[in-house]
Amino acid sequence: MKRLAYILLIQLLVLGCSTEAKYSVENVELDMEVIKVSCGFCEVHFDTSKPAYYYIAAEKVREGVDPLKIEEQFKTLSLDYAYMNYINWRYDLLYNGEPHIAEFSSHSLQYGEMTHFFTSLEEDTDYWVYAFIVDPHTNSPIGDLVIEEIHTKPSSEEKVFFKYRINDTWDYVYPLDESGKINTHLPWVGETIDSLVLRDEINPYTPGYYFIDRMQVLRDSGKANIHYGMYAHNNNGIGDGSSQTEFIEGHTYYTAIASFDGPIILDGEYKNYSIYKFTWEKGMDLVFTLEDDTLGAW
C-alpha cells in the first residue's frame, strides 16, 4: 500500500511539473497581420484562436508558383526544410556533447500570440510571408495556409543614429530616432575589434573597409546576432554568449554599429551606420555621439 501511494505521488509530481504546452490541432484559426515592410526586414503579428503550434516563414516569390494551388505540397516542403535545419542544428549540439536539446516543436515552431521580425531580406524584392498550424507530435501541417505577398522597399526609410557608451567593461548601444527616442523596431548589429588584430591580421583593411565586408558576411550567413532597441554587453570575455571580446587596458578598439535594413552605403553615403574609436582604461565612462564617428578611418 505504501509502495502504491509512493508511485501515485511521483506520478502527480511529474504531471504537476510538466512543461509541455497545451495545444489544439482542430478548428484553430490563425491570424497574420503584416505591420511594416521595410528594405531589409518586415514586422508581422501572429495569433491563434486556440493555443496551438504553428510554422512561420518568409521566402522569395518563385515565378510560376502559386502556393495556394499546391497548398499541401507547399506546407510539407516548408516543414521538411525546417526539419532539415533542425536536424543539422541538433547534430552539431550532440556532436559537441550537449545533453539537453530542444525538440523540433520548441526549436522550429511558434506558439501563442507573437510579433516576429523577418530580417536579412533583399531590397526591392517580392516575398511570401506565410504561416500554418502544425501538429507537434506528428510534425505534420494542419489547416489552411495563411499567406501574403509583400514587396520590400528599394532603400531604408528609417533614420537613426547610434549613441554609444563605454562604462568600465560594459558597453551600451542606443539606436535613437530623429526626436531622440529609442527606436525599438529597427534591427541592428554591432561588432568590436581590437586595433592590433585589425592591423596585424587583417591588414591592409582600414576599419571602414573591414566592417563593410563584415556586415555583408553577417547578412549572407543568416546567423547575425540581431538586436532591437537599447542593448548592454559586458566585454569580459564571457558576456551573454554573443561575443568573446575582452577589453585590455591600454588597447585601442573600434566598434561598428549598423542597421540591418538594406545597404550600409547608399549613393556614396553611410546610412544608419557608425564606427567609434576608443582606448580602453579600467573604470572609464565615455559617451559617443555622431560627432565622434570616425567614418571608418584609423
Q: Which descriptors apply to this entry?
A:
alpha+beta; 35% strand; 4-stranded antiparallel beta sheet; 17 strands; 5 helices; single chain
Describe this structure in words.
The protein has helices at 2-16, 71-95, 104-108, 195-201, 207-221; strands at residues 30-37, 42-48, 53-60, 110-111, 114-118, 126-135, 140-151, 161-167, 170-176, 187-194, 227-228, 231-234, 252-259, 265-266, 269-270, 273-279, 285-288. The protein is globular. Mean pLDDT is 89; it is low at 1-19. With 298 residues, it is α+β, with helices and mostly antiparallel strands. The protein is built from five helices and 17 strands. The longest helix has 25 residues, at 71-95. A four-stranded antiparallel beta sheet has the order 4-3-6-7.
Q: Overall pLDDT, averaged?
A: 89
How much helicity do the residues have?
A: 10-25%
- Counted by DSSP, the helix tally is 5
The radius of gyration over CA amounts to 23 Å
How many strands, what sense, and barrel or not for the largest sheet? 4 strands, antiparallel
Number of strands: 17
Identify low-pLDDT runs. 1-19
Strand order of the largest sheet: 4-3-6-7
The ordered string of helix (H) and strand (E) elements is: HEEEHHEEEEEEEHHEEEEEEE
Structural class: alpha+beta
Intertermini distance: 79 Å
What is the quaternary state of this protein?
single chain
